[in-house]
Each structure stands twice: as C-alpha cells, then as structure tokens.
Amino acid sequence: MARYNHRDIEKKWQEIWETKETFKTSEDHSKPKFYALVEFPYPSGDGLHVGHPRPYTALDVVARKRRMEGYNVLFPMGWDAFGLPAENYAIQTKIHPSVVTERNVARFKEQMQSLGFSFDWSREVNTTDPNYFKWTQWIFLKLFEKGLAYKKEMPINWCPRCKIGLANEEVVDDGCERCGHAVETRVKNQWMLKITEYAERLINDLDTVDYIERVKIQQRNWIGRSEGADVIFKIKDTEESLTVFTTRPDTLFGATYMVISPEHPVLETLQDRIENVLAVKAYQEEARKKSEFERAELNHDKTGVKIDGLVAINPVNNEEITIWVSDYVLMSYGTGAIMAVPGHDQRDWEFAKTFGLPIIEVVSGGDVTEAAYTQTETGTMVNSGFLNDLDVDSAKEKITTWLREQGLGTPKINYKLRDWVFSRQRYWGEPIPLVHCETCGWVAIPEEELPLRLPEVVNYEPTDTGESPLAKIRDWVETTCPTCGGPAERETDTMPQWAGSSWYFLRYTDPHNDEALASKEHLDYWMPVDWYNGGMEHTTLHLLYSRFWHKFLYDIGVVPSPEPYQKRTSHGMILGENNEKMSKSRGNVVNPDDVVAEYGADTVRMYEMFIGDFEKSVPWSTDGVRGCKRFLDRVWKLKDSVKPGDTYTEALEAKIHQTIKKVSHDYESLKFNTAIAALMTLLNDVNQVGTINEAEMKTFLMLLNPVSPHLTEELWEKLGFEGMLNEQSWPSFDEEKTIAQTIAIGVQVNGKVRGDVTVNLDDSQDVAREKVMANENIQRAIAGKTIVKEIYVPGRIYNIVVK
RNA sequence: GCCGGGGUGGCGGAAUGGCAGACGCUACGGACUUAAAAUCCGUUGGGCUAAGCGCCCGUGAGGGUUCGAGUCCCUCCCCCGGCACCA
After folding, report:
1. What is the average per-residue pLDDT within A305-317?
2. ipTM > 0.85 for the complex
3. Which residue range is the domain that position A759 belongs to?
4. Which of A34, A376, A473, A543 is close enough to A66 for a disulfide, judged by CB 3.0 to 4.6 Å?
C-alpha cells in the first residue's frame, strides 16, 4: 500500500470540508448548542509562530468532539486588527494601515487553514471593518448616554524625541520602546469609562462562572476589594475635617498622626492657615516631578513635610495629632488621606521613625519600639480606652457601632480598580463618535451616522502637542453640532485596542447583521460562550473589560446573560528550542508553515497537544515532532492489518473501553497529552496482539480524529467505512468493561514491594493470600518473622506487616 | 513584601494515599542494508551484585501522620507568573 502522504491527504480533505461546508455552523436552533471561543489574534506582519496553534488546536479538539456528540457548534475566528504595529509601519512606509492589515490577515488565514482548524470562516470578523466598528462605536454611545463615559485629566507617557504618546506596553525600562529616550509624563484630558461602578458585580459574579482558579484569583486581586470604614478627623479651629479610609478602625487609639497626599485638596482650601506654605509647595512640586517609575521604585524611603498650622483631633480620645504631607499616600485610592498607626503598619512605622513621631501599641503581641507589629488579624486590644482587653474582631464591631452613633464614621468598601482610560492619541483605532460644541458641550453623533469612519490621511505622524494625527485633518475635525447646528469639532482621540475585543464574541453569533450588533434570537441561543480559552496575559484587562461591557449590555437589555463566558481556561506559552521566549531577535522562532510542509498538519496538531502540560510553558522540540510523525506513520500502517469484525475482540475489549473513557475525559480537562499517550499505548497493545478488527479500528479513528482529522478521515474512507468520520457519533464505553478481571498487583512486606501476583478482581482475601504466600520472594522476605497485620486492597496492593 | 503555580530520569512529562518514572524524545546495542537513512527488536534513574534471582538508595531539604507518602500535615530552600507604598 502507498505510504502516508500527508501533503495530498491534507489538501484533499481541506478541500472536501470547504466544498461541503462541513464545519459551517447550523442555523437550527432546536439543537443543543456549544460555543467554543479562542482569542482572536492581532494579525502581525510576522505571521503565525508555533505558539498560536496551541490554544486553537485545543478548542478545535473540543469542538470536533462536541459535533460528534450531536451539538450545534459555533467555533469562529477573526482579527483584532487595530493597533500600533500597523500604524508604526504606516509612519515609516506611508502605506495605509488597512492595506497592511489586509495583507497580514490573508497570510494568517492561509496559515490557519493549512492546519485544518474547523472554524466557520463564514463568520469571520475584523475589528477594523466599518460594519464591525459601527457597533463598537454604538456601544460607546450607549455608555456615554448612560453617563458611564466622562472626560478627565490623566497622565500619558510621552516620548519627547518621537513626539508621541506611548501605551504602557511601549514603555520599556522607563524609556521609549522605539528610540530609548526617557519617557515623561504629560497630562491630557481623556475619555474614561466607569468600570469601577461595576467593581462589586465583577467580583461577586466570579462565583457564578467556571474559570480556572488562578484566573479568578488574579481578577479578585486586580479589583482589590477591601472592607473598612471612613472616619472623620476634625481639623482644630476650623470647620474642615479630613476623612480617612481605614480597614482597621479598631486601631484608632494608635493613630498618632495623619498623612495626606501631595495632591490633597485641603492643601488648597486651608492654604491660608498653613504656616509653612513654601515648604509644602516645594514638596508638592518635588512629588509631581517624580515619574510613575520613580514612585513605583522599590526604594521606598519615606519623605514628607509636617504641615504647620493644621492640627487634627483623634475622634476617639480627642488628642491633638499632627498632619503631614507625604507621597506614600496616594490620591487615587481611598480619600487621599490616612490615619497613621505606626505601631501596626510597616509604612507608618518607617515614617514615624524617620520623623521621630510617637508610636503606640494597640494590639498586644510585638515590640513596637523595634518594628511594626503586623500580625494583627487576631490579638487583644491595649492602650485603647473603651476597647481595652477586647479581641480584634469584637473591637472592630464595637468601634464601628460607636463611630456610627457619634456620626464620626461609616462602613465603607474600597477598590484598587481604577476607571478605564479609553482615549488613545493615535490614528489606527475606532474614532470616538462625539463632537464638542461651544454651547452644548460634548454631544453624541446621531446613530444613523455610524460608522464614523477614519479620514484618509497621508501622514500618520502625531502632532507636537501629543494630539492624535486626526487633529490635523481639519475638514474631518470641523463639523456641526447635531443638537444646535452650530460649529463643533470632532473628538480626535481614538479607542484603545481593548474596545473591539470587548464584544467580538457577540458579533460571531450574527456577523452580518445591519440592524443590531447581533439579533436577539442569535444572542439568546448562543450566549454565553460555553468555553473560552486564552492566554494568562489577558486575564486581568481583556477579561475584565469584556465582562464589564457585557454587564452593561445586559443592563440595557441587549444581551441575555450577565456574564459573557461560562468557562475560561488558559494555556502556557511555547518557548524556543533553547528554552527562551520565541522572538525574532532571539532567532528561535519556529514557523508552523515549515513544520506543516515537512511533517504535515496532523503531526503538528498532535505535537502541539502532546508537547506537555497544556497549562504550562514548554520548549519546542523538533525531535518530539518526529515522534508524533512516527506514531501517525504507524497508524497509517494499521490499515493493512484490519480484519473484519463488528464487536471488540476479547484481547482488546477492556483496553478499548479504558481508552475511550480516558480520552473522552482527558480531552475535556485540558489533558490532551495524556489522552494522546493513551492512544499510543493502545496502538502498542494492538501491535502486540498483531491484528485489529473493524470495530476496534473505527473506535480508534474516532478517538484520534479531533487531534489529527485529515489522516483519520482518509483512513476511514480507505477502509470503506460508512459516511464521513466527522459525522459519526462519539464512541461510548461501558464502565464494567473497563475493568480487567485479572490483574497483577504488588505485594509489599512492611511497605516495601517484594513481588507481585496475578489475582482475579473478585478473589477474596483468603484466595489472594494463598497466591501471595505461594510466591517465593514473599516467603523469603517473611521467613522467621511474625505476621502482625495484612492489608488487602483489591486491585491495588497486598501489604504484609511483619515483626 | 503580598498573592498564585511549581520543584519527579539526560529532556518533555505520567501517577483517585496503593508496584514512582506511563507515553514520547535522546542515547546505546542488535536486525535489515554493499553502506547509510528509514523501519523493526531490545536496553536506558543511581548504586551493589556470585550475572541467577536479588539487595540498597531515590520525587528540592528536614521533620511528622499512616500498614503504606511524589501525593496529606509542619518548618525551610529554590524557580516561574502576577501585583506592588492600595491605608
């Protein structure tokens, strides 16, 4: 028989699938649905590397299995095509980003198709397509309408040499990614989205979804919910007060001074009373000049200035305490002011030591003259007036009640999560569909005018002022106000790349709809996504942003579920053969095209799944690829030894049932490597037996099909089996038949293995003992000793304890 | 510093508290061949060994629980990822 020719076979089946629309998603909404989603890529100029197919293959395996299980499967692919590389390329070459994008998309698509993924290509979406971003803009307008979009002064990263605003990921070691010049901070008025309004729901609803635990934990940490109280400290001889947020109101008696952030407004409002205004202003100026990088540096030596003329009153004991200004207090969290409890807070303790401020112990257990005592989850209150001798929990309860009664404080929850900076000073993004009118302020453009397209430009260079390149296109910028008809100017900032990816999974359900982002009928049927796999690098931002948009769309009645993704899993990275991250500069990039050409798509797919633990990073190995090719060669040869037979033979029956069970389970639980190992083991067993019959071969091909679909289809056809393999029903197993009736078990003496015996599963302990005692090695091991105890676990172990 | 995840052969990695190292790779030996590649067969954690069986050691380190621990508990070390003055 002819040898395994992967080129011809793969070409043949890819054409058949395309012609027959084999993987086209059905519009039959009476069938149970399964929506499998993988993150759509940014189509870069470099094409795919072998890391890309890992998640695609994984969910392709699941999607193919689901189809065989009778589901209507939606498994789509698209392009997250706005973004910086195409724009930077345009600046250099003057080629329009859309031209480059189109070229890159074509290449990506060809590469993906050569791997035989069962995507429904008729549902392809592209975030840069006006018919797509029309709805991105529409969602933004809804957010604006509901007051969830607002403008605010926010710092951007600015490279003075390139005269360009940089995204955080373009800042490398505090310098510009392109020229290396030090990055400065510039303040710009930017569009913000109020994701913080959804913080509580974004945390709570994690309990309703099936995400791998590390993803949930990262999301919770990112949102950073903390419970505590706002407490009011009066400022002596004024009507003003300072409100602080604290998670430990029980330590109020230990608050010996206060600290406010350099940006705190009270420095303005009470300026007249401050005796050392110059020193304070100088400190504010110093803090302002520090870059984000400097403030985030590990060097946290405490600096600060005491504010002369302002004195606060500790509400629990009416003691007068000093007020300081220091940059270790952030204006962006809580109230921008803190009560300092140096006895039990590391930062406050360092500050108190630096400036010689009093330190009081209020939770017993440590020595606060030596270090802050922070093991204060439990403990007993001391030096705390009416809280003395209470444990921490009761003290918290008592003080909270007391504060409320006195009108000095209220329970409060704070989040680390900040609102989403939604503006980019860039060309290649969705235009923000708003105009600014002198009389009416910011006004939405009418929905009928969507999509608001990007103007054609010749120069993509940003302006000297940090405005988007769009600002220079005056005939685009200048427009009329939709409300009053007067002169108005368009917003020239564009949306971040996160925008288009925050809802793309909705568009797949109904990608050609002109009336809505997707019809209610399609959304009702397909949402939520049943299984979404993506990289850990998208765990915080993309996942959170898209959950936020989805909840908003749910609130305004557009989508049927409060959460977009029912299940989320994550894959590990594929490294170069040298164990380093794959990159052009390291010269270790493996191009899937080369591997497909030499070994075939089925081999590449199999190796991608066999390479190791799906959730971990792993180096690529060309030798490993060869091993998978050898396996498929052996599978190919199997066709020559297939004998007739429509039931499993006794020799293989148990093994087949075991393999169906293991493979079915492992494909569902990200253990593709062990599923393939089980198939390899089965093949080794078949080769031991010497023959395989038709029933066994069919099952084997069905189990292998999701991983290596071309070869298995070809063999199915060659062997004259009925229909197409992808139309078969997933094989089932009989639990009872997975259990072999005779089994070799280990025999231990005092926990050490001294031999093994073959027993029947239903042997009583007496029968088993007889076999054990007949074993020479065991006899030798227990000779002259007294048997104290015998443990028999059927099918597992026989352990004899001797003295 | 805090929060996760890990540490098992030469390598990638397997192991519901029950024979550690499945499966694959590499390496070595053999068959086939004029020869090589490919393929097939065998060996492949370390050590001891009378070469027969067998014995000892071994899952980052040290303790513990258990008839039995890679797996559970305690202490510690190291690596990877995320966050980082968040009150």
Report:
1. 95
2. yes
3. 741-802
4. A34
